[in-house]
Design brief:
The protein has one domain: Rossmann fold, CATH 3.40.50. The chain is 44% helix and 7% strand. It contains 6 helices and 4 strands, in the order βαβααβααβα. It has a two-stranded parallel ribbon with strand order 1-2.
Length: 149
């Protein structure tokens, strides 16, 4: 799961996906990262932590990190939150089609081909974190159904 700073959207996606995979009995390794490294080592945004706690999910122990080329090689799928993240990973992958085929916009799982972004709630209020939670919840449900067999 990849967003810009790895403190809002991607740690929320990691927490939701991890919970859903565990409940489905799936032995998946799920992680998150940011395209930028300015928050590396920091915990998720306190509003993201609070929103996830509201749904009995704990992401407080996660720490931000920047994505690396080795991540593109190691993971089977990499979900990004918007086209900016996609384009950053495209640059990182140096247009290698094998690596780029692993990168997908997460909301395309719900609305294929629409390339809709998960809005960044960082500069908004608490409502933005609820919107992000609901969008990611729906997308993660589809991912578990699609790949969980």
């Amino acid at each position: 799961m990849v967003c810009m700073g790895n403190i809002c959207r991607s740690p929320m996606a990691e927490g939701i996906m991890r919970h859903k995979a565990e409940n489905a009995g799936l032995n998946w390794f799920i992680d998150s990262a940011g395209t930028g490294g300015w928050h590396s080592g920091e915990p998720p945004d306190h509003r993201a932590v609070k929103k996830m706690q509201h749904y009995n999910l704990n992401i407080a122990n996660l720490r931000a990190r920047q994505i690396k080329l080795t991540d593109l090689k190691a993971f089977d799928l990499i979900y990004v939150m918007d086209m900016h993240n996609y384009n950053e990973l495209k640059r990182l992958a140096m247009n290698n089609p094998t690596l780029l085929n692993k990168v997908k916009l997460i909301l395309n799982e719900v609305k294929p081909g629409k390339n809709l972004p998960v809005p960044d709630p960082y500069y908004g209020g608490d409502d933005g974190f609820e919107t992000v939670y609901q969008l990611l919840q729906e997308a993660c449900n589809v991912i578990v159904q699609k790949y969980g067999e």
